[in-house]
Design a protein that fits this description.
159 residues; alpha+beta; Sufe protein. Chain: A; three-stranded antiparallel beta sheet; 5 helices; 23% strand; globular
């Protein structure tokens, strides 16, 4: 059986012959869906003192995040509420896995590296779990959802 990315689709148009196109590799893999559902391990908590929100301009996805920090400003607890596609949720899952022990500077550096990677100007950042959404770089309409957790976190930690 051919790999999904190798399948072709014929699309007829009015008074024109069918056009052949190659379908891209599957974006919503079982790993992406598992990560998206894994986000439930960090439920929203109104009691967390540092809160921020972000919304994607490209797709309308939204995410709210809350943090508790230790005396040195490092994340010790977090909760997330999201209204995003599976890619946005999977990226938020990766964020949540890697955030404990990090501070504002760490998160800001990772967000900058993520932006460069999405623009094709850098490597996938060394943040645990981001590999699961690596295929989404080829989908610019998903880029805004990918960075939601980092953007909301920076908003929360600026306050």
């Amino acid at each position: 059986m051919p790999h999904r990315a190798d399948r072709t689709v014929t699309t007829p148009t009015a008074n024109k012959p069918a056009v052949m196109a190659t379908r891209p590799a599957t974006l919503y893999t079982s790993d992406v869906l598992a990560a998206a559902t894994g986000l439930a391990a960090w439920p929203w908590n109104d009691g967390l003192p540092h809160k921020g929100e972000a919304r994607s301009r490209t797709c309308g996805s939204a995410l709210a995040i809350g943090f508790a920090l230790n005396a040195t400003g490092h994340v010790v607890d977090l909760g997330i509420r999201t209204h995003a596609c599976a890619i946005g949720q999977a990226a938020a899952f990766a964020f949540a896995q890697g955030a404990p022990g990090r501070d504002f500077a760490d998160i800001a550096a990772a967000r900058a590296a993520l932006g460069l990677w999405l623009a094709g100007e850098g490597d996938l950042p060394a943040w645990p779990g981001l590999g699961v959404i690596a295929k989404a770089r080829a989908y610019p309409s998903r880029h805004g959802a990918i960075v939601l957790a980092w953007d909301a976190a920076l908003e929360a930690l600026k306050r």
